[in-house]
Design a protein that fits this description.
seven-stranded mixed beta sheet, 8 helices, Rossmann fold
């Protein structure tokens, strides 16, 4: 999978959907950015979250499993090579549906944050859309419903403070390959969530 994503690096850097948008604006706002804020951006892709947070004065470390994305650290979300509570904020935008073990990835994200997690991803629509996504992109694992997200985040020891739903206007329609039935659109709405680590569970520095 890493080689596939390295080949896509330029496309992700140039993609308007990833480079800008009200969801990105809100994600940055919810990080409470400032010069004394240290952020880890997980599955950084084209680096757009990191770029925006650095513009706000944050110190940002980027992680991605694909060397071609030019992250600061090459690593899977499920195996973050950092000490507990190393960052004030951990972000992850439009990537979690590619994680092979979503619960392990969320547990790792919760482990390395000291204060906040701000995470956004496409939300589950139905199995037809999931099938379409896997045909379009074999690296797609699964999208999750908002209820599933809440459950997983709480299970990891986080408190869900805010959720914001974003409607996607330009969903794609896919044609099925020969011998397959027609499929629904690929892609869907997204949800951005802001979570905090309970004060009693925060780690002293």
């Amino acid at each position: 999978m890493t080689d596939v994503w390295s080949q896509r690096a330029d496309a992700f850097r140039d993609s308007p959907t990833h480079r800008e948008g009200p969801d990105l604006d809100l994600l940055v706002e919810w990080c409470d950015p400032g010069h004394d804020v240290k952020v880890l951006d997980v599955a950084t892709g084209g680096g757009h979250v990191a770029r925006r947070l650095r513009e706000e004065g944050c110190t940002v470390v980027t992680v991605d499993p694909a060397p071609g994305m030019a992250p600061d650290v090459v690593s899977r979300a499920e195996e973050l090579p950092f000490e507990d509570g190393s960052f004030d904020v951990v972000t992850c935008r439009i990537a979690a549906h590619h994680f092979e073990d979503i619960r392990k990835a969320i547990a790792e994200i919760a482990r390395v944050t000291q204060r906040l997690v701000v995470i956004e991803d496409n939300v589950f629509v139905d199995e037809r859309v999931e099938e379409a996504e896997r045909l379009r992109d074999p690296t797609h694992v699964r999208c999750y419903s908002e209820e599933e997200w809440k459950e997983m985040l709480v299970e990891a020891g986080l408190e869900v403070e805010q959720l914001e739903h974003f409607e996607r206007q330009a969903a794609r329609t896919l044609r099925a390959p020969p011998g397959r039935r027609g499929l629904a659109r690929a892609g869907g709405d997204a949800t951005c969530g802001r979570c905090s680590r309970p004060r009693a569970a925060r780690r002293p520095r």
